[in-house]
Design brief:
Layout: H1 16-20, E1 25-27, E2 33-35, H2 44-53
Antiparallel strand pairs: 1-2
Length: 60
Amino acid sequence: MKATKVDKDLCIGCGLCCGICGEVFRMNEQGKAEAYQRANAENQGAVQEAADSCPVSAIA
């Protein structure tokens, strides 16, 4: 699986991605989301849902 990236310049820190897929996303000390784990076959759908749901399209 390719790595998931969060554009910290776009991220507004809403936390939606963490709520959808906490296995891959978490909030950092600056209040921005980060992908701390790679997506895998079990959570790929949730990662895609998080990317699709991001209000500022910060997840690639």
